[in-house]
Amino acid sequence: MAAHLSSGRVNLTALREAGRRELREFLDKCAGSKAIVWDEDLTGPFGLIAQYSLLKEHEVEKMFTLKPGRLPQADVKNIIFFVRPKLELMDIITDNVLREDRGRSPQRDFHILFVPRRSLLCEQWLKEQGVLGSFIHREQYSLDLIPFDGDLLSMESESAFKECYLESDQTSLYHAAKGLMTLQALYGTIPQIFGKGECARHVANMMIRMKREFPGSQNSIFPIFDTLLLLDRNVDLLTPLATQLTYEGLIDEIYGIQNTYVKLPPEKFAPKKQGEGGKDLPTEPKKLQLNSAEELYAEIRDKNFNAVGSVLSKKAKIISAAFEERHHAKTVGEIKQFVSQLPHMQAARSSLANHTSIAELIKDITTSEDFFDNLTVEQEFMSGIDTDKVNNYIEDCIAQKHPLIKILRLVSLQSVCNSGLKQKVLDHYKREILQTYGYEHILTLNNLEKAGLLKPQTSGRNNYPTIRKTLRLWMDDVNEQNPNDISYVYSGYAPLSVRLAQLLARPGWRSIEEVLKMLPGPHFEERQQLPTGLQKKRQHGENRVTLVFFLGGVTYAEIAALRFLSQMEDGGTEYVIATTKLINGTSWLKSLMEKLEPAPF
Amino acid sequence: MSRARADEEEYWHSSKFRAFTFDDEDDELSQLKESKRAVNSLRDIVDDDDDDDLERVSWSGEPVGSISWSIKETASSSTSSLEGRDSSLQKGSSSYAAFPKQVSSYSLSSLFKGELCLSLSALLDTGVKNYTPELRRPKAEYKDYSSDWSPKDTVRRMQRGKVCSLERFRSLQDKLVLLDEAVAGHDGNVITAVLIFLKRTLRREILFRELEVRQVALCHLIHFLKETGEQKLLLDLLRLCFFSLSVQLSQYREHLNIQDVEKRREFLKGCIGLPFSVEDTSHIQDHYTLLERQIIIEANDRHLETAGQSEIFRKYPRKASILNMPLVTTLFYSCFYHYTEAEGTFSSPTNLKKTFKIPDKQYVLTALAARAKLRAWDDVDALLTTKNWLGYTKKKAPIGFHRVVEILQRNNAPVQVLQEYVRLVEDVETRLNLATKYKCHDVVIETYRDLKDRIQLTAYKCKVERGSAEEDKINSILNNTVRN
Questions:
Q1: Could you say which of 3.30.420.40, 1.50.10.10, 3.90.830.10, 3.40.50.2300 is the CATH number of the domain covering A247-269+282-367?
Q2: Domain boundary at B67, B98, B131, which?
Q3: Which of A85, A435, A439 sits opposite B105 (nearest CB)?
Q4: Partners of residue A35 on adjacent β-strands
Q5: Which of B41, B85, B133, B288 is 20 to 30 Å from the Cα of B317, by its Cα?
């Protein structure tokens, strides 16, 4: 199931394997048959670590979702709760335990596995309810960094950005540092650490301290990563606000990818045969897993959407030609060979059918007038046109009551591309938004202001043009079909974050000192000493491996841009990407909005 | 991959772990359906090409063998009757809806939720005496509570999930060192634990004073008080530390939790006096004024509606109450139901426009939409007509006539009405496009005439009905030009 994890330069199967081992060890502690009660939000991330077959091998016979009331009947010796350390979940567990029939025999034993860590407060809470003593094992399972693909790790910590910047709660950074320690235990100490931003500085400090405090952690593994680059999301607030234009990026923008799965409207995936359940089919979304295990997907996901169609039609020709082969197969040997290839061909065909359908769905949207208008305004802002006055299109969208999140995305983009808006312009937008969508949204506007997304221009100077020119963020001659620069992922805009990574590798950050000073937070370099035996002697022509850790989230388009750099012939650097959460502009802004009660209609 | 699949298959076929065991023998049909589904989803493993339309709603598409899929399967096999299962599933799903969907469970912000009443004095007071006999720990663990850990070590131990007694930290200085250590560790779990200890053992004034210079810790405490619902302490704290925008607005935020409109209004009134920034204050003042208005309008209109006297309410019954709606929605409502009222009444559109300084553009847009919906074309005309001081009238649209046409068209305005405004669209190309799109033949013909475009005009002849007045018009223009 996890072959795609070992396809990259760094074999991430090892990380997954470590996770599985820890899980097995815990399960074996609870001897005998067991049932697992799941916190529903954990099943997605856990699914990337283990399938049911692993649990089954360790005598897990039943699985339930956590809900109040009496636990279902199940003749098992152990009941294990897999939960996040949240107090409201503790209440449900308490309810479950208190309602357990004491008279039943044999008695069932209770255990708790906290993910990713035990919490003093939760245990105290259970104690006050008088149920703490019912649990035989209370353990933690540190699921910090979850392998998503051969070159991609995520903590899936949705609110990390909000917590760091709005609530001054840096717990997620602590977990990021712990995750990096785990990585170093498996893949060797990373000799060089670079970083930009306040959070990056904190994480680096914590890593260095953790290393000092656990001298035992000095390992003798030959380092696989050469460099770690820690980047704060608030160093580059611009990139996630723009609409991603890669295939995978657009799927995420439009349908949202969760734990590598996407749910799609079923109409385009109509069954070829009429089944019994055919009637209710259109109400059920089609769910697909998206990762590099699927050959075709690996090939097209990072392409600009405008280049996807031609690849799909080329593939279609190849596949139908392959199926035509059967007419030419004369001898038994030839037929046998054809048949042996059949499963592979069928898989390729269904994969092609799926992606053709998805591409059609996306095309319906990208060819719409509104998508075009929206993109035009975004591109104007990013290339520096008219960022200092009220934009007509945005005003029209407000007047027509387009979704608030779309408005916020555009206004924030304009603000970021102008190093803050003129007070008059900002006030105008604010008033229009509050009058049209409701005054309570003042809370959300304030959150955005605090995060630096929507703010008045304080310095009186717009630094963005300098940053744009120095880092070449806007490229007029973009090639979407055969790209020669990372700007293809946004059809003209080169993501700032990835530009920083690119310039770090060559010629080094010293060349852009001035611009680095304009971006928020410190930039720094740290070295971790390696024992002499482990110091790397680079083979000629061997690529360096850099781990880029995005603190506060990363978009699929940025991942695509880094993959593009990895594949450049003379690039010299291969990238592995880690993040607190895979985001897009919409999901990101949603996490920053005040949760308001739904309107009565 | 294939091995794993074979395993799964074997698993589902083997009798020991039967996927479906239905005790309810009577319900053969549902049993049949269930096993059919099971078989179908099994076929999925064998043949990817197969339809998976028979999988169940909530988990559809999960690959067989994935964790969430298995939960569904094993859970259903354990309930005794079909009815029982259905209701439990329903109950389950409704209770999930209440769970916050955040994944980042472990961080502080999500640690405390809801109306729990943490008995704070007991919290973290983990001296040995508190352990009940059956919870007695092995000797080695006693060390954790008795040893003399430094503040730093204490924080490290707590970070690793070990229980530590904080009671030893008696002096204010010790306590503050402990707090600073916890903050330096960036672990919200530990910071909050220390804060709870300080909150319990320090006088409030001292705690607040120290927190003012420790903003990270202050944020954690505010968050904790918010989550645990300790309103009084929270408000005291906020009153003392007005240091950043988000904290200032925390109090305003509370209004969202008040369901009763009268109470909500009172609360908002109380917010006006708070030291917010100038712009925020004016927005909050507007919010209060708006709600006050809505309460009056709502009472009045509900009465009118139930009395059945007013024609407009009889013809177009209200879909929902106007309470807590945004300003623009309220304006639309008032343009719809109270358009002709004099400026003196609270519900009249002009009064709303004045009170809230609604820009002209916004006002025209909203009024237009409301009147067009009622097909009150005369009102539309009046709205767009201005008189200059000489008494001449002129048509003016601050939103541009192309938008006027769009709105009217959306409300199925007749061609006669539409074309009057299409004619006023300034940009020739837009005008032609709109006129062609909405079949305003006269406008198209006149525009081509003014452009002296014979070719287009001739071509347009086929778009109008044969023998119609429009065709005559085209012909006469074409002939005219010939003569010229």
A1: 3.90.830.10
A2: B131
A3: A85
A4: A62, A79
A5: B288
Confidence of residue B14 (pLDDT cuts 50, 70, 90): very low
Measure the CA–CA gap between B450 and B443, rounded to whole angstroms.
Answer: 10
- What is d(CA A1, CA A3) in angstroms, rounded to the nearest whole number? 6
Question: How many Å apart are CA A202 and CA A205, to the nearest integer?
Answer: 5
Question: Residue A279 corresponds to which tokens in the numbers above?
Answer: 């009637």
Superfamily of domain A3-143 in CATH is Sec1/Munc18 (SM) protein, domain 1 (3.40.50.2060)
The answer to pTM > 0.90 is no
Q: Which residue has the tokens 């963005």?
A: A464
Contact A399 B99 (CB under 8 A): no
Q: Taking Cα atoms as reference points, which of A399, A431, A435 lies closest to residue B400?
A: A399
CA distance B388 to chain A (A): 28
Residues of chain A with pLDDT under 70: 1, 104-105, 215-219, 270-282, 536-540, 596-601
H helices within A367-422, ranges in order? 369-382, 392-399, 404-416
Q: Which residue of B has its CA nearest to A38?
A: B71
pLDDT tens for each residue of A383-440: 999 999 999 999 999 988 999 999 999 999 999 999 999 999 999 999 999 999 999 9
C-alpha distances (whole Å) from A192 to each of A8, A524, A545 are 21, 11, 11
Which of B24, B43, B55, B70 to mutate: most A Cβ within 10 Å?
A: B70
* Count of domains for chain B: 5
B381 CA: distance to closest CA in chain A (Å): 21
- Tell whether B241 and B321 lie within a shared domain: no
Chain B hits for A599, CB-CB cut-off 8 Å, are 324-325
Report which residue type is found at B247.
V
Question: Quick one: chain A helix, strand, coil %, rounded to 5?
Answer: 50, 15, 35
Set of chain B residues whose Cβ sits within 8 Å of the Cβ of A426 = none
Q: Tell me which residue range forms the domain holding B181.
A: 144-257
**Please, what is the Cα angle at A431 between A427 and A434, to 5 degrees?**
135
Residue B282 sits at the chain A interface (C-beta within 8 Å): no
Asked if the ipTM is above 0.85, the reply is: no
Q: Hey, which residues does A80 pair with through a beta bridge?
A: A36, A111
DSSP string, B319-334: SS--TT--HHHHHHHH
- B88 interfaces chain A, CB cutoff of 8 Å: yes
CATH architecture assignment, domain A370-462:
Alpha Horseshoe (1.25)
**Which residue's structure tokens are 């299962």?**
B85
Instruction: Identify the CATH number of the domain defined by range A144-239+495-532+539-600.
Output: 3.40.50.1910
Q: In what order do the strands lie in the sheet with A573-579?
A: A146-149, A152-154, A573-579, A544-551, A227-232, A192-196, A523-527
The distance between the two most distant Cα atoms of chain B, rounded to a whole number of Å, is 117
Amino acid at A184: Q
Residue with tokens 């009064």, as numbered in its chain: B351
Q: Summarize pLDDT for B150-165 with one digit per residue, the tens.
A: 888 888 888 776 767 7
CA–CA gap between residue A202 and residue A526 (Å, rounded): 12
CA angle A515, A520, A525 (to 5 degrees): 75
